C-alpha cells in the first residue's frame, strides 16, 4: 500500500451511515464474515479505506487497511470489509491524492452469531423471575418492546449490551436465559452474539401458523366467555419483520423455537397436528426470508395443567427428524427444574436456578455439530442506484426492477425517479420483503462541482496563417466529454479565427456543468508574401552596387536580420536574401522567394606592349585560361580574341581590355571587363616581312609579317652563298620565334618563299 500524509481535520468531511455501534454480522461456517459500509461525503475524495482492530487482544484478527471504494461519486460511498469472527473497532478513513483527510471510528462491531428466539412464554421470558444479564460485553441486542404491534418495526439500530435491565426486541421480557446463553457462547466461540426475541405468552403453534398465513387467530387460554383475538398479525408478524429487517441487515444463524405448553393443555394437539402446524410456520418463514433459514426446535410441553406430553414432543421430533429439513434438535426442557415454582416457567432462585439451567441446555444443543452443519444466512448486499442525467440535465436514479417495494423520500413508489438537486433516500424491499441497504444520494454532488476553466496555449490574440494557430483546453476534474459553443466535444479544440468560446463539461453520469466563462480570440491577418525588388540586376561586376527593396509597405525583416527599407550590396561575393514583413499587429508574412545575387571581381588592368613590328601583346600576370580580350583602335572596338596577342598593320592608338566570364549562383553568366590598358601608338613598317632584333645579340630572333603568309620556307645563307639553316612555317598569323644558337657570328641573307610570296632580309649576328 502506498504511503500517505495526513491533513488537519477542520470539518466534517464524511459521515458513516452504516454500520452502527455494537451491531453483529453473521459469520459463515469458516469463521469469516463481512461488514457492509455506507457513508456520505461532503468534499471530493478519491479513496475510502477500512480497518478492523480487535477491541481487546485475542477478540479477533486485526486487518490491514482495505480499500472499500475508489473514486466514489454522487456524494456516497459503499463497500464491505471482510474479517475473521471477532469483536472489533472499525476505523474508516477517506483520502485524496494519498493525503488522509479524515478518519472516523465505530467503537464496536462484531462478526459472529445472530439468533432469533421464538415460541411462547418460556421463549419470551417472565419479568422478575431472576433472569441474569450477560457479563460479557460481546452479547448484544436492541432494547425495545413492540407493545403497539407496529408493522413494520421501527428501524431501530441502537444496539446495547444484553444486561439485566434490558428487553430483547421486539417482544422479549428482560434478558431471560439469553444473557447467560450469550456469555456461554461468547466464551466458547470467542465471537460476539446478538439476540432477538419473538416469544409471546400463552400462544399455540396454531396461533403461529394462522398468523403466518395472514389469518385472524384466537388465544385458547384467554378464550373465556368469548373468543380472544390476538392483535393483528401476532405472533408471526414480529418474526417476519425481524427477519426482513434485522435478518437482512445482519444475517441469521438460526431461529430458536421453544413452545408447546399451550398445545399440551388446553389444546391437547396430536403429534401429527403439532408437526403439521410447526412445519407450516417453518416453511412460511423461509418463504418470507430465505429458503436456507435454519431452525432449532426445543422439546417442550410441561404446563401447570399437564405433565410432559409425548404427542407434543413427538410432533416436535417429527419436524426435527424430517430429512433435509435443516431443523436441529434443541434442548429437552420437560425434565428441567421439575417441579417449577409456578409449574410452567423457569425461574432463578437460590439453589434452584432454572433459567440458568435452560441457558446451559440451549448451549449444549448449540454444539460444534450444529455450527458445522447449519446454514447461516449472511447479510444482504448493498444495492447501488444507476445514476444518469437526462436530456434536460435532470438526475435519473434507477434501482433494479422486480423488487417488492420502493419508497422514495419524495413519495415516489417506482424503481426509477427523475429529480433535481437535493438529497434523496429510498426504502427498498426485495421480493421476499427483506430490507435492502441503499445509500442516500445527494444529487448536488452528481453534477460537476465546478464550471470548466478555459486555458490557451498561446495569447488569445494571434496571427492567422491559414493553419491552426491556438489551442483552447477545458480544465475540470471528472469530465467525460465536453460541449463547446463552437460544437466540438473534445477537451481541446483548435482555433484559427476570431470569436467567443465557452464550454460545458459532462461527467460520467451525463450531467452537465455550468457554462465556463467565455474567452474571446482575435485572429489578426498576416501580410501578403512580399517580393524583393533588385536593382539593377541580380549579378553585377565589381564597382557596381546592388540595391534590394520590397514592394510591401510593412516592416521588413531581412534574412540577415536587417530591418531597413533597402539594402545596398557593394562587396564582391555571392549572396542569398529572403524577406518577411510584419504588420501593425505583429503578424509576420510568409517568406519571400529567395534571391541569389553576386558581385563579381573585375579583372586587373592589362599592360599592352608591342612585341613585334606588327604584334601587340596584353599581359599582367593575372589572366585565366577562359579570359578574352577586347581590342580597340582609336577608341573603337576592333575585335575580341581569346589570344593575348593581336597583329596590327594600321597606324593608330591601340588599347586592350580583359573580359572575364563568371557562372552566377542563379546559373546565369556575366562578363566583367577590366579597365582598358594604357594606349600604344603604332607606326606601321613598310616591309612585308621583318626579322628582329637586328643585329641579333642573343639566342632568339623573331619573324613577323605584315600580312598572314602561308606555307613559308625560310633559308639562311652566308655572304659566300652557302645555305646554313632552314625551316618551314605554316603561317605568320602570330610572330614566330627562331632559335639561332646554331649560327655563328656574321652576316646572313635570309630568303623567304611561300604561297604567292617571295622576299628576303639581311641579318647580322653579333654574339
From TrEMBL:
One of its GO terms (molecular function) is hydrolase activity, acting on ester bonds. InterPro entries: Secre_tail (IPR026444), SGNH_hydro_sf (IPR036514). It holds the Pfam family Por_Secre_tail. Residues 691-765 form the Secretion system C-terminal sorting domain. NCBIfam families: Por_Secre_tail. This is Secretion system C-terminal sorting domain-containing protein. It comes from Emticicia aquatilis.
Amino acid at each position: 500500500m502506498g504511503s500517505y500524509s495526513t491533513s488537519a481535520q477542520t470539518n466534517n468531511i464524511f459521515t458513516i451511515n452504516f454500520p452502527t455501534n455494537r451491531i453483529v454480522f453473521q459469520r459463515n461456517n469458516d469463521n469469516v464474515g463481512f461488514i457492509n459500509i455506507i457513508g456520505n461525503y461532503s468534499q471530493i475524495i478519491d479513496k475510502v479505506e477500512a480497518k478492523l482492530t480487535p477491541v481487546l487482544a485475542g477478540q479477533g484478527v486485526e486487518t490491514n487497511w482495505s480499500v472499500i471504494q475508489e473514486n466514489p461519486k454522487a456524494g456516497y460511498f459503499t463497500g464491505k470489509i471482510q474479517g475473521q469472527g471477532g469483536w472489533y473497532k472499525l476505523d474508516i478513513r477517506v483520502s485524496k491524492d494519498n493525503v488522509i483527510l479524515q478518519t472516523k471510528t465505530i467503537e464496536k462491531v462484531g462478526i459472529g452469531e445472530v439468533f432469533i428466539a421464538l415460541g411462547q412464554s418460556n421463549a419470551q421470558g417472565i419479568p422478575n423471575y431472576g433472569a441474569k444479564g450477560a457479563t460479557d460485553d460481546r452479547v448484544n441486542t436492541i432494547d425495545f418492546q413492540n407493545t403497539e404491534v407496529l408493522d413494520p418495526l421501527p428501524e431501530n439500530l441502537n444496539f446495547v449490551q444484553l444486561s439485566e435491565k434490558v428487553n430483547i426486541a421486539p417482544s422479549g421480557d428482560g434478558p431471560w436465559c439469553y444473557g447467560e446463553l450469550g456469555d456461554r457462547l461468547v466464551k466458547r466461540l470467542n465471537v460476539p452474539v446478538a439476540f432477538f426475541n419473538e416469544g409471546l405468552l400463552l400462544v399455540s403453534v396454531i396461533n403461529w401458523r394462522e398468523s403466518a398465513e395472514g389469518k385472524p387467530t384466537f388465544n385458547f387460554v384467554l378464550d373465556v366467555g368469548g373468543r380472544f383475538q390476538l392483535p393483528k398479525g401476532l405472533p408471526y408478524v414480529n418474526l417476519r419483520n425481524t427477519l426482513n429487517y434485522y435478518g437482512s441487515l445482519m444475517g441469521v444463524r438460526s431461529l430458536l423455537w421453544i413452545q408447546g405448553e399451550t398445545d399440551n393443555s388446553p389444546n391437547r394437539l396430536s403429534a401429527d397436528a403439532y408437526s403439521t402446524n410447526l412445519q407450516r410456520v417453518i416453511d412460511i418463514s423461509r418463504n418470507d426470508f430465505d429458503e436456507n433459514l435454519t431452525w432449532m426446535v426445543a422439546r417442550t410441553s410441561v404446563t401447570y395443567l399437564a405433565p410432559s406430553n409425548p404427542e407434543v414432543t413427538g410432533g416436535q421430533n417429527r419436524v426435527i427428524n424430517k430429512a433435509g429439513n435443516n431443523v436441529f434438535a434443541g434442548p429437552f426442557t420437560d425434565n428441567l427444574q421439575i417441579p417449577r415454582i409456578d409449574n410452567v416457567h423457569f425461574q432463578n432462585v437460590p439453589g434452584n436456578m432454572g433459567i440458568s439451567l435452560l441457558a446451559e441446555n440451549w448451549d449444549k444443543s448449540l454444539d460444534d455439530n450444529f455450527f458445522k452443519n447449519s446454514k447461516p444466512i449472511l447479510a444482504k448486499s448493498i444495492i447501488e442506484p444507476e445514476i444518469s442525467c437526462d436530456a434536460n440535465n435532470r438526475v435519473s436514479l434507477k434501482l433494479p426492477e422486480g423488487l417488492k417495494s420502493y419508497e422514495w423520500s419524495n413519495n415516489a413508489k417506482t424503481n426509477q425517479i427523475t429529480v433535481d438537486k437535493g438529497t434523496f433516500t429510498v426504502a427498498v424491499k426485495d421480493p421476499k420483503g427483506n430490507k435492502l441497504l441503499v445509500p442516500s444520494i445527494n444529487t448536488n454532488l452528481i453534477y460537476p462541482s465546478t464550471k470548466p476553466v478555459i486555458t490557451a496555449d498561446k495569447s488569445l490574440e494571434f496571427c492567422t496563417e491559414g493553419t491552426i494557430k491556438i489551442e483552447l483546453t477545458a480544465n475540470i476534474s471528472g469530465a467525460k466529454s465536453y460541449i463547446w459553443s463552437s460544437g466540438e466535444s473534445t477537451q481541446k479544440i483548435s482555433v484559427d479565427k476570431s470569436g467567443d468560446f465557452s464550454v460545458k463539461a459532462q461527467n460520467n453520469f451525463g450531467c452537465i456543468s455550468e457554462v465556463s466563462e467565455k474567452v474571446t480570440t482575435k485572429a489578426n491577418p498576416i501580410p501578403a508574401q512580399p517580393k524583393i525588388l533588385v536593382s539593377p540586376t541580380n549579378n553585377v561586376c565589381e564597382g557596381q552596387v546592388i540595391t534590394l527593396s520590397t514592394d510591401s509597405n510593412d516592416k521588413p525583416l531581412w534574412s540577415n536580420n536587417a530591418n531597413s527599407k533597402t539594402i545596398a550590396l557593394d562587396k564582391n561575393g555571392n549572396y542569398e536574401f529572403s524577406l518577411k514583413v510584419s504588420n501593425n499587429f505583429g503578424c509576420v508574412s510568409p517568406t519571400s522567394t529567395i534571391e541569389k545575387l553576386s558581385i563579381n571581381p573585375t579583372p586587373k588592368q592589362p599592360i599592352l606592349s608591342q612585341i613585334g613590328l606588327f604584334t601587340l601583346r596584353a599581359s599582367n600576370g593575372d589572366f585565366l585560361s577562359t579570359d578574352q580580350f577586347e581590342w580597340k583602335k582609336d577608341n573603337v572596338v576592333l575585335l575580341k580574341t581569346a589570344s593575348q596577342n593581336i597583329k596590327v598593320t594600321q597606324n593608330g592608338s591601340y588599347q586592350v581590355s580583359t573580359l572575364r566570364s563568371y557562372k552566377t549562383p542563379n546559373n546565369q553568366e556575366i562578363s566583367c571587363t577590366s579597365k582598358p590598358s594604357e594606349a600604344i601608338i603604332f607606326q606601321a613598317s613598310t616591309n612585308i616581312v621583318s626579322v628582329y632584333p637586328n643585329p641579333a645579340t642573343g639566342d632568339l630572333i623573331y619573324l613577323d609579317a605584315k600580312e598572314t603568309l602561308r606555307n613559308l620556307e625560310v633559308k639562311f645563307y652566308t655572304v659566300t652563298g652557302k645555305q646554313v639553316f632552314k625551316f618551314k612555317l605554316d603561317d605568320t598569323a602570330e610572330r614566330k620565334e627562331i632559335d639561332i644558337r646554331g649560327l655563328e657570328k656574321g652576316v646572313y641573307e635570309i630568303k623567304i618563299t611561300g604561297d604567292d610570296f617571295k622576299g628576303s632580309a639581311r641579318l647580322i649576328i653579333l654574339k
